[in-house]
Amino acid sequence: MKLCDLVECNEQTEITSLSFDSNSCVTGSAYFCLVGGTFDGHDFCEQAVQNGAVAIIACKKIENEFTVPIIVVDDTRHALAVASSRFFGDPSQKLKLVGITGTNGKTTTSYIVKSILSESGYRVGLIGTNGIFYGNTSIAPTLTTPDPIELNRALKSMVDDGVEYAVMEVSAHALTLNKIDGLNFEVVAFTNLSEDHLDFFGDMEEYRRAKAQLFLPYYSKNAVINVDDAFGRALSKACPLNLVTYGCDNPADVFAIDIKMSIDGLEFVINLCDEVEEIEFCMSGRFNVYNVLCAAATCKVLAVPLDKIKKGVQNLKKVDGRFNIINTTKYGIIIDFAHTEDGLFNILKAINEFKKGRVITVFGCGGNREKEKRAPMARVATSMSDFTVITSDNPRYESPDSIIDEIEKGVKNRNYMRITDRREAIKFALEYADKNDIVLIAGKGAEEYQEINGIRYEYNDEAYVKQLIEDKGI
Any bridge partners for residue 265, and if so which? Predict the structure, then answer.
């Protein structure tokens, strides 16, 4: 493809690949100089050209004289995203794309939407925290929303595979970094907003502003918004798109009544734009009522009939890392991705509504980011659990014990202990649990690794728990 077909210019240079990493440039690459934090891609242009780059796309004048064309644009991140879409044949124009954003619930909601659309006979792809999935293809996760080149490559592969719908999680980071520019969404949905990622955004106002970007005509013509969320209500009032609202406590187009919860799941009655049906779902908790409502409203916009929505919701038996239940002969174990104060609160609230014995919680916090959430998560865990084990999550380059020291500052009650090694912490919790107790193992969900000092060691909570159960014959 010619350079002028990818970015606004008159250059006819033939481009065979795109890159924003000088090390990955090969002969025929167009190199995009991205800027962020202390990193400036303009500093690596010479290396990119040496590795084969035949064009440079920059956002400032480059003093060095290269033999390759240099195109200066206002925003190289935007240019990269649009060029990626064009390079792969604008795949989002050839399928129906659903985007879901919010602090919590994106993954579960995306899985429900996929299940409903599959029940309706469509071929569906999925992009999110757990990876990329379509047909017989499964790609390990990198980021919640992949970088533009990877994202558009995946969308093109879906089109080539006959996929009709793609359901993707859209992170606030992706919106701020223009990763989804150039994509065309059929419908975008908002789940909720609570404090998260402030190490990146600085304050909640910037975080809110990032989420709101998805609800502009540039990306989509239809929106689904949770009006029980304070930010969602404000968003709905300003939204310029065709809008469907959902909620339980405020007037909404889609809502639930007669909600019943147990460890085995949910039952409730849904009113879907004045159509009424009984719904059953495999995961419990009021927050999952909202996830189902969001998915149902999204599929309503896509003209899926209510009977297919009901069957699609019921067909979904598990979302990896989300409210995954393991029952033993003595007690229940729940593995969940809850890694924020709000996420931990929601799942513990749900568990406390159906528990028969004690609630024992195992959790930790990741290193090198979001230190401000450590103490609040301890307050939630120790005030809503009968016993808490504070341990490691992904310490990264921080000392695990130092992280736990900061977590302990928020301890509400003394009903806890600290065990730095995550395996030992989980083992202790299972040995400590008694008949009818529920052990919540929070924070990592379906992750397949433990990141320590820059190395990702193979590890998965569910696999480890099942091994312990087998070894101990519980």
Answer: 262
Q: What is the pTM of this model?
A: 0.90
Contacts of 3 (CB under 8 A, 6+ apart): 9, 11, 12, 13, 14, 15, 30, 55, 69, 71
Rounded to the nearest 5 degrees, what angle is found at the Cα of 292, between the Cα atoms of 290 and 296?
115
Angstrom distances, CA of residue 369 to CA of 203, 278, 418: 14, 42, 21
In this structure, the strands spanning 187-190 and 96-101 are parallel
| Residue 277, C-beta contacts closer than 8 angstroms, at least 6 positions apart | 269, 270, 306, 307, 309, 310
Q: Please check whether residue 116 is in contact with residue 304, taking contact to mean a CB–CB distance below 8 angstroms.
A: yes
Strand partners, 457: 450
Structure tokens that stand for 328 in this block: 């033993």
pLDDT > 90? residue 396: yes
- Alpha-carbon distances, residue 272 vs 293, 315, 349, 362 (angstroms): 8, 19, 26, 38
Dump pLDDT digits (tens) for 265-293.
999 999 999 999 999 999 999 999 999 99
Which domains, ranges and CATH numbers included, belong to the chain? 3-86 (3.40.1390.10), 89-315 (3.40.1190.10), 324-472 (3.90.190.20)
Q: What's the chain's average pLDDT?
A: 94
CA proximity to 443, closest of 379, 347, 357? 347
What are the residues facing 32 on neighbouring strands?
Answer: 57
In this structure, are residues 42 and 51 in contact, taking their beta carbons and an 8 Å threshold? no
SS3 letters across 85-140: HHHCCCHHHCCEEEEEECCCCHHHHHHHHHHHHHHCCCCEEEEECCEEEECCEEEC
Q: What share of the chain is helix, strand, coil (3-state, %, to 5)?
A: 35, 25, 40
Query: In degrees to the nearest 10, what's the CA dihedral of 154, 179, 216, 193?
Result: 100
Burial 449-465, CB ≥16 within 10 A → b, else e: ebbbeeeeeebbbbebb
**Alpha carbon distance 286, 289 (integer Å):** 5
Least confident of 72-86, 185-199, 320-334, 448-462: 185-199
**What is the per-residue DSSP string for 264-299?**
TEEEEEEEETTEEEEEEESS-SHHHHHHHHHHHHHH
The per-residue pLDDT for 196 is 62
Mean pLDDT of 197-211: 71
Tens of pLDDT, residue by residue over 292-304, are 999 999 999 999 9
Taking residue 144's Cβ as centre, other Cβ atoms within 10 Å add up to 19
What are the φ/ψ torsions at residue 323 (nearest 5 degrees)?
50, 40
